[in-house]
């Protein structure tokens, strides 16, 4: 791959991540309408979200294996087409189990996004640029979450709620065409090396377990904000659907700043003489400290202050996240990066499946307060576990 073309590919990874998160955010933006129309409880909604996470958990390792084995060009082409079909079929949903089944399908496809992207970053970016590259494509998660509320509301008010699923599905198919055209020089899959590093061997290393446990704890936090922020602002803060469309995107703008800024900061620290591990520690601990402001959200005296606290949490979380994903490539042999990413995704999928169920029960029977408290503490706990278990900067099979 020519040096300049990696940035074109990175732009395509950013684009697909945006589409990915518009697809998954569409349901949360439309949740007030769908819940009222189809009489869905908080527990029902929690089940629907959990089914998506179950799909993610189910697909993570197979998609990571596929990316290591067949390469990212094939894997992303298949995965984006697969999840775009599921997105479009949401327009036919009429009951809780319809949406639950389609969310599972969606999750199995979307699980390929990060493992394939991490494979490409590990192959084409040096260590001091990886967090920045991860921050760029991971910014798509926040851009998608940022543009989804106004875009989906706009489509819904003019064309009906079904268009909020059909238009993003069409964008996915369009992206596949661009991907097939522009990404033609992927390095040959490292089959022999991949086979020499057995899956069981990966689990013998404490670094891998540190990554798994870290994602287990940090993953559900941002997912909680993706899926429940519109509902929280609608039910607890009294915002209308139009107001949600106008304001719910703002925290995700701060998430973008954290993604790109956190990745840039790690590279800057390394260029100033900090070691790789020190740069990761500073950015990840700093990000987890900002996540502690999650507990302030339910105690804020106004919706404006609540949204401000959410902004700071997402700023910190994405700074942490960009460096966490870069840490995967720091700690993993190149031939296993996608599989290690997939293993962490299994953990994130498990906790992401259980946390919405817990959230639904707590909101129905207690309040949002204990959920925000958990969201405040889990990122710091995850970083502490990763730091404790990661004693080396790399391991070798």
Structure characterization notes:
This protein has 397 residues and is mainly alpha-helical. It has a single domain (5-181, 199-389), classed as MFS general substrate transporter like domains (Growth Hormone, Chain: A, Up-down Bundle), CATH 1.20.1250.20. It contains 16 helices and no strands. It has helices spanning 5-38, 42-70, 72-89, 96-110, 112-124, 127-159, 163-182, 191-196, 199-202, 206-235, 241-247, 250-271, 276-291, 303-331, 337-365, 369-389. The longest helix has 34 residues, at 5-38. The two termini are 27 Å apart.
What is the CATH domain class? Mainly Alpha
**Molecular shape:** globular
Query: How many discrete domains?
Result: 1
Strand content: under 5%
What is the terminal separation in angstroms? 27 Å
The total of beta strands comes to 0
Element order: H for helix, E for strand:
HHHHHHHHHHHHHHHH
Summarize the amount of helix as a percent range: over 70%
Give the mean pLDDT: 86
CATH domain fold name: Growth Hormone, Chain: A
Looking at this protein, list some descriptive labels.
Growth Hormone, Chain: A, globular, 0% strand, disordered C terminus, 16 helices, mainly alpha, single chain
How is this structure best summarized?
The protein has 397 residues and is mostly helical. 82% of the residues lie in helices and 0% in strands. Helix 2 (42-70) runs antiparallel to helix 3 (72-89) and helix 3 (72-89) packs antiparallel against helix 4 (96-110).
């Amino acid at each position: 791959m020519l040096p300049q073309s990696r940035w074109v590919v990175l732009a395509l990874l950013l684009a697909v991540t945006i589409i990915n998160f518009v697809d998954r955010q569409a349901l949360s933006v439309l949740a007030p309408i769908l819940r009222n129309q189809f009489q869905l409880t908080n527990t029902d909604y929690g089940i629907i979200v959990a089914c998506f996470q179950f799909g993610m958990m189910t697909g993570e390792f197979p998609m990571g294996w596929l990316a290591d084995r067949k390469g990212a060009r094939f894997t992303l082409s298949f995965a984006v087409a697969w999840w775009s079909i599921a997105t479009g079929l949401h327009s036919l949903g009429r009951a809780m189990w319809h949406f639950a089944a389609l969310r599972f399908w969606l999750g199995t496809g979307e699980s390929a996004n990060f493992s394939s992207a991490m494979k490409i970053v590990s192959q084409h970016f040096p260590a001091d640029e990886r967090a920045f590259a991860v921050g760029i494509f991971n910014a798509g998660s926040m851009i998608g979450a940022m543009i989804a509320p106004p875009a989906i509301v706009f489509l819904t008010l003019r064309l009906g709620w079904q268009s909020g699923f059909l238009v993003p599905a069409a964008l996915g198919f369009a992206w596949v065409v661009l991907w097939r055209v522009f990404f033609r020089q992927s390095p040959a899959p490292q089959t022999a090396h991949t086979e020499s590093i057995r899956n069981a061997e990966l689990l013998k290393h404490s670094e891998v377990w540190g990554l798994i446990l870290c994602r287990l704890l940090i993953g559900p936090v941002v997912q909680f904000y993706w899926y429940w922020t519109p509902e929280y602002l609608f039910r607890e803060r009294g915002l209308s659907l139009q107001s949600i469309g106008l304001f719910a995107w703002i925290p995700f703008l701060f998430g973008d700043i954290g993604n790109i800024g956190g990745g840039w900061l790690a590279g800057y620290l390394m260029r100033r003489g900090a070691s790789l591990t020190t740069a990761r520690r500073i950015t990840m601990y700093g990000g987890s400290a900002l996540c502690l402001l999650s507990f302030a959200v339910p105690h804020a005296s106004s919706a404006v202050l609540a949204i401000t606290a959410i902004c700071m949490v997402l700023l910190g979380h994405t700074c942490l996240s960009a460096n966490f994903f870069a840490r995967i490539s720091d700690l993993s042999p190149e031939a296993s990066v996608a599989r290690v990413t997939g293993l962490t995704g299994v953990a994130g999928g498990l906790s992401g499946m259980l946390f919405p169920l817990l959230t639904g029960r707590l909101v129905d029977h207690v309040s949002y307060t204990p959920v925000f408290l958990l969201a405040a503490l889990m990122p710091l706990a995850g970083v502490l576990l990763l730091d404790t278990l990661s004693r080396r900067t790399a391991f070798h099979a």
